[in-house]
Amino acid sequence: MASEVVVETRNLSKVYRDFWGRQKVRALKALDLEIRQGEIFGLLGPNGSGKTTTIKLLLGLLFPTSGQALVFGRDATDVKKNERLGYLPEESYLYRFLNAEETLDFYGRLFDMPAAVRKKRTNELIDLVGLNWAKRRQLKEYSKGMARRIGLAQALINDPELILLDEPTSGLDPIGTREMKDLILRLKSQGKTVLMSSHLLADVQDVCDRIAILHQGELKELGRVDTLLKVRGETEIRAAGLSELAQSEIRSVIERHNGTVMSMDNPTTTLEELFLAIVRDSEARPGRRAKQDS
Amino acid sequence: MVLDSDPVVFINWLRPALFFFLQAAAVLGLVALVGGFLLAAFRYGPALGGDATYRMLKTALSDLVSLSPRRIGALARLAVQESLRRRVLVGFGVFLLILLFAGWFLDTKSYDPATLYLSFVLTATTYLVLLMALFLSAFSLPADIKNKTIYTIVTKPVRPGEIVLGRILGFSLIGTVLLAVMGLFSYFFVVRVLNHTHEVDIASLKSTPGDTEGGRSGRTTLAQNHRHQVTLDADGNGSTDIAQGHWHEVDKHVEGDKTTYVLGPPQDLLTARVPAYGKLRFKDRAGRGVDKGINVGNEWKYRSFVEGGTLATAIWTFEDITPERYPEGLPVEMTIRVFRSYKGEIEQGIRGVIVLKNPTNGRTSELKTFTAKDFSTDHMKIGRKLSDKDGNPIDLFDQLAPSGELELWLQCIDENQYFGVAQADVYLRARNASFGMNFVKSYLGIWVQMLLVTSFGVMFSTFLSGAVAMMATLASLVLGFFTKFVFEVAQGTVQGGGPLESFIRIVKQQNVTLQMEPGLSTDVVKGADAVFMFFMQSVTSLLPDFRQFSTVDYVAHGFDIPADVVGVQFISGLGYMAAVFAIGYLFLRTREVAR
Questions:
Q1: Per-residue confidence band for A294, with pLDDT thresholds at 50, 70 and 90
Q2: Shared-domain flag, residues B174 and B313
Q3: A11 touches chain B (CB under 8 A)
Q4: What mean pLDDT is reported for chain B?
Q5: Residues of A in contact with B61 (CB under 8 A)
Q6: What residues form DSSP beta bridges with A210?
Q7: Same domain, B224 and B243
Q8: What is the pLDDT of residue A254?
Q9: Quick one: B190 and B206 in the same domain?
Q10: How confident is the model at residue B4 (pLDDT cuts 50, 70, 90)?
C-alpha cells in the first residue's frame, strides 16, 4: 500500500526528568513508526509501556527528548496540524459545567467554525453518539459512558482526517464497546486514519489493521494483525462432511473419502496470547527490538 | 488635596515612557532570545538549539498574526462561565454587606464626610475587585492543567497566545461588569448618605449687625451632626456658611400668613473642581530670582520654603486670565505648608500676604493678607474691582492681566516662620466638572488596575502552580504599590538600611539613627543588602507603579481627574498588558502542558 504517510516517528525518545534535570525514567526509546492514511493502527502495551507518551508526543503535549514526531508531515508541536486531527483523551477531560451542546459549540469555535456550521455539526454529532436525550444536561451529571461519548463527539467536531483515541472503549458497557468499534470501522470506511491505544486486546484484534506492541518504552512487535496472529509451523484444517472414521486420517485421506477441504491454513492464536508471550519474552530478554514490516 | 508631585502632562510623559518601554522590551526580548538559545543548545547542541530558537521565533510571529477573534472569544466566554461557577458573585455580596454596615464604622461627625465616604467606597471597591481578579486569574490555567482539560484545548488549532488573551479578556469582562455594578451602587450610596437638608431655626434669626437693608442671620437645625450659619437678605433669600465642606441655598416660601425657609440640597459637597495651575518660581530672602526656595529638611523633595519677614517670595504665573473664563472674579485656593522655627501661638495660623501683579508693567494690587494653617485649604475670592498699592481703583482683567497673564506673589510675614509651597499648591478654580464623570474616571483607574492584576495573574499561571502564581501576582502588586519605598531603600535614603540590616536592628533593638558598628560583619550585612536591593530595584523598575492608577484622592477631595492622568493610566496599562501578554505567551509556548 503506497498511501500517504500520516504519522511518522523517527527515533522518537522521551526521558522524563525531575526539576533538577536528573533523569527519572526513559518513557520511550527510539521509536520508529509509520502510519498510513486509511488504516486503523493500534498501540498496545502494559501500563507504563509508553503508549500514552507516544500519543502525547504526537499531539505536541510533550516535547521529544530526541528524535522527531511528524503528523501530516509537520512537526508535532506545530498547532496547524491540529486542524486535521481529532483526539479523544484517556478520560473525558471536558468542562463539567458545560452541557453537551455548549461543549461541542465551544470546541467548534476553537476550529474557527462559523455559527451555522457549528450548529449543524453539533446536532449531527449528538445524534451520532446517541446523546440527544441528554444534550442540555451539564457534563457533571453524565455517567462515565456518556462522558466518553461526548468526548468522542468533540474529537470529531472538525471532521478530522486523523483520529487519536486513547483507550476508546474504557468505561463503556458491552453495547457501548460494540458501538465504538463499529464507529471506528465506519471512520475507516470514510477513509480516515485511526490511531488507538488500548488495554482491551479483543477490541484491538477486532478493529485494527496493524498494531505496535510497546513494552518498557521499546517497540516489541509491529505488523499486520492477521500476520502477527498467524502461528507458523503449524497447520489448521477445517473440514466438513467427514465420517468419524475418516477424521483419524485427516491430511492423507480427505480427498480419498471425497471430503471437501474448507480451509487449510496456519492456525491463529488470540492477540491476548501473543501479547502475553511478547511481554514474557521481553522480560526474559530485555533489549530485543522489533523489526519493521508492514 | 495635596499633590506630592507636579501635575502630569501627558505629552511630556509619553516620550520618555515610550523610550523606556522600547528599551525594556528590547532588553527583555534579547534576554529571552539568548536564554532560550542557551537552554536549547544545552539540551540539543548548538546547531539544533539554534534551529529550535529560530523556529520558535518564526512560530511566535506567525502565531501573532493568526490570532483568531472567534477562538479568543470562545476562551473568554469559557473564562466567564468558569468565574460564575466559582461563585465570583460572592465578592459582590461581600461588597453589598460592607456598604450595608458602613454606617457602623464611618464617622459621620467627620470634618469632611464626603472625603471620608468617597475614599471608603473607592478603596473598598479597589481592594475587592483586585482580590477577585487575583484569585480568578491565578488559579484558572493551573486548574485546567491539573484537570487535564487543557489537553482538549491545545490539541485544537489554538495558539498559546489565544489561551492567554482569552483568559485575560474573560476575567476582565467579569471584573468590568462587577466594577460597573459596584460603581453604580457606590455612587447612589454616597449620594444618598450625604444628601440632607436642614431647617432654619426661626427663633435664632436676628438682624445682621451692620446691615441696614433688613438682612437677617441665624442658624439651621442640626442634621448629620452639623449645623450652618444662615445669612438672609431683606427678601428672606440667602445662603448658609460652609460646614463639613458644603453649603445650602435658602429660599423663602410664604403660604398665607405662614413663612417658611427652605434649604436646598448641599452644594459643593460632591464636586469636581478643575484647577488652573500656574508656573512657579522663587525669589530668595534678598529678592534675587532662584529655582527653588529653602530646604527645611525632609520636606525638600517636592516642596520648597519661603522665609517669613524677608523678600523671599513664591511667584505663580497664571495664563488665560480673562473675564469670560472668570466672570465672577478669581477663585484662588491655596494649600500652604507651614514650617515653624518657633512654636508661637499654635492655634493661630502663620500670616502671609498675596499680591497680584501685571508681569509686563509691574503694576500691583494692594496687599491681601491671610493666615495659613498646615494641612488646610484657604479659599479666597478676588473680585474684579481692586485697588492698587496707592489705593487707586484698578480692574483685574484690564489693568493687571491685559494679555491674559497674571502673577500671584506670595510672601510670609511672620519672621523666622516659613511657608512651604509647590506648583500645585496654589491654583485658580477654573470651573466645576461633573462629579458623576469624575467618579467614572476614578473607576476607570480601578479598572486599569484590575486589568493589570488579571494579566499578571494569567501570565504567572502559565508557568507556576495556582498558589504560587497568586503569591507572585500579590508580590508584584505589593511591590507596585511600594515602588517609591523600594527605590528609596535601594538608594540608601531610608534610615535603617536594607532588609538584613533592619532585621539586625530589630533583633538588637537598635535605633535606626545609630550607625552600625564598623567592621567585617557590618560590611557583609551592608553588601548583602546592596546586592538584594539591586535585584529588588531592578524587578520593581519593571513593575507598574500601582499608585499612579489610584485617583481616589482626586475624587475624595473634590478635584477633577485631569484627562492627562487618565491618558497616562491607559497608555501605561496598555504597555504593561502587552508586555505581560508576550511573557505569558512565551512561557506557555515553551511549556509541556502534559507534564
A1: very low
A2: no
A3: no
A4: 88
A5: none
A6: A41, A224
A7: yes
A8: 64
A9: no
A10: low
Residue A56 contacts B, CB cutoff 8 Å = yes
- pLDDT-derived band at A1, boundaries 50, 70, 90: very low
pLDDT value of residue B302: 75
Domains plus CATH for chain A? 5-230 (3.40.50.300)
CB pairs under 8 A between A and B: 79
A146 at B interface, C-beta within 8 A: no
Cβ atoms of A251 and A237 within 8 Å: the answer is yes
Contact B227, B243 (CB under 8 A): yes
Let me know whether B31 and B76 are in one domain.
yes
B216 lies in which domain range?
Answer: 202-263
Residues B416 and B438 in one domain: no
Q: What is the ipTM of this complex?
A: 0.85
- For A28-75, what is each residue's pLDDT tens digit? 999 999 999 999 999 988 888 889 899 999 999 999 988 999 999 999
Alpha-carbon dihedral angle through residues A185, A186, A190, A196, given to the nearest 10 degrees: -40
Task: Determine the residue among B151, B167, B589 to mutate to test chain A binding: the one whose Cβ has the most chain A Cβ atoms within 10 Å.
Answer: B151
CA distance A208 to chain B (A): 24
β-sheet with A23-36: strand ranges across: A23-36, A5-17, A66-71, A74-75
Q: What is the pLDDT of residues B135-164, one digit of tens each?
A: 999 999 999 999 999 999 999 999 999 999
Where would I find the beta strands (DSSP E) of A111-187?
162-166
Is A93 within 8 Å of chain B by CB?
yes
Alpha carbon distance B160, B154 (integer Å): 8
- Which residue, of B232, B263, B294, is where some domain finishes? B263
Q: Is A107 touching B (CB cutoff 8 A)?
A: yes
Q: Please check the confidence at residue A90 and state whether its pLDDT lies above 60.
A: yes
Residue A2 has pLDDT above 60, yes or no: no
By C-alpha distance, the chain A residue nearest B155 is A82
Q: Do residues B187 and B227 share a domain? A: no
Can you list the positions of beta strands (E) in B296-364? 304-307, 313-318, 330-335, 337-340, 350-357
Give the whole-angstrom CA distance, residue B159 versus residue B162: 5
How close B176 gets to chain A, by Cα (Å)?
Answer: 23
Number of domains in chain B: 3
In a domain, residue B36? The reply is yes
What are the pLDDT digits (tens) for B210-256?
777 888 888 898 888 888 989 888 888 888 888 888 889 998 888 88
Q: What's the pLDDT band for A106 if we cut at 50, 70, 90?
A: very high
Q: Looking at the structure, do residues B189 and B46 belong to the same domain, yes or no?
A: yes
Residues B25 and B116 reside in one and the same domain:
yes
In the structure, what pLDDT confidence band is assigned to residue A239 with cuts at 50, 70 and 90? low
B145 close to B465: Cβ distance less than 8 angstroms: no
CATH number of domain containing B386: 2.60.120.260
CB contact under 8 A, B594 and A106: no
Answer with the one of B421, B455, B490 that is the final residue of a domain: B421
b/e map of A186-225 (b: 16 or more CB within 10 Å)? ebbeeebbbbbbbebbebbbbbbbbbbbbbbbbbbbbbeb
Mean pLDDT value of segment A217-230 = 83
Single-letter residue type at B20: F
A61 touching B (Cβ < 8 Å): yes
List residues bridging with B413 in a β-sheet.
none
